[in-house]
Amino acid sequence: MNKKHPTGLLVISRHTESEWNLLGKWTGLNDVDLTAKGHQEAEQIGEMLRDLRFNVVYTSEQRRTHQTLAGILKGSIHPDVPHHIHGAVNERDYGDLTGKNKWEVQEEIGEEAFKGIRRGWDYPVPGGETLKDVYARVVPFFDEEVLPQLQQGRNVLMVAHGNSIRALIKHLEEIHEDKIAEVEMSFGQVLLYHITPEGTIDHKEIRQIDIIPPKA
């Protein structure tokens, strides 16, 4: 009887609410902390993932992903696991827009340009990166560093950012650039990709915590 090779599991979480998320600011590479709500929701994610065990975890260089990971591991009562920090999954560099309020910028530049910057594939950002630029650094890192581990049946947790995750989703699910604007990575959502030894997706799951409502 042929023994079925185990699938590896790629679990992807966006960092939880940061101080600048709360203020509606474009954060990019700026290093800000999670809010109290963000810390609490990170632990909720961990509780939701208690049925899983990870062989390795990856985060970006921004500390909001490190703080989210700490909450996830605390909530899941997970033992120590090797933690690798990699700039390839950093948030998108928003250049001249960093620190500006998104909704004020929307009023200044109009709806079409605003959507292009937020969700477009190759829409220019003054002094910053497009999603295409982010894709160019995320995908080689994934293919060279992460995928071989998944093909060996290992479980990998990645805590990253909205745009670096969207770039990876595009790669994994072979989404056309014309459709990438429709791809969203919500707060509190976790994606689970079961990867075969051949490197293909066996199946995908989505888990979601209940987001804590803002205080009145």
Please, how many helices? 7
Helical amount among residues, as a percent range?
25-40%
CATH topology label: Rossmann fold
CATH superfamily: Phosphoglycerate mutase-like
| Beginning-to-end CA distance, first to last residue | 61 Å
Order of strands in the sheet with most strands: 3-2-4-1-5-6
Number of domains: 1
Major sheet size, sense and barrel closure: 6 strands, mixed
Total beta strand runs? 6
Judging by the overall fold, what is the CATH architecture?
3-Layer(aba) Sandwich
Form type? globular
Computed Rg: 17 Å
- List the secondary-structure elements in sequence, H or E: EHHEHEHHHEHEE
CATH class reads Alpha Beta
Mean pLDDT comes to 94
What does this structure look like?
The structure is a single chain. This protein is an alpha/beta fold and 216 residues long. It has a single domain, classed as 3-Layer(aba) Sandwich (Rossmann fold), CATH 3.40.50. Helix content is 38%, strand content 16%. The protein is built from seven helices and six strands. It is globular.
Annotation keywords:
alpha/beta, 38% helix, Rossmann fold, 7 helices, globular, six-stranded mixed beta sheet, 216 residues
Question: Can I get a quick summary?
Answer:
The protein is α/β, with parallel strands linked by helices and 216 residues long. It is built from seven helices and six strands.
What's the SSE blueprint?
Blueprint lengths: L7 E7 L4 H5 L12 H13 L7 E4 L3 H13 L7 E3 L16 H8 L1 H9 L11 H21 L3 E6 L1 H12 L15 E7 L5 E8 L8
Parallel strand pairs: 1-4, 2-3, 2-4
Antiparallel strand pairs: 1-5, 5-6
Helix pairs in contact: 2-3, 4-5, 6-7
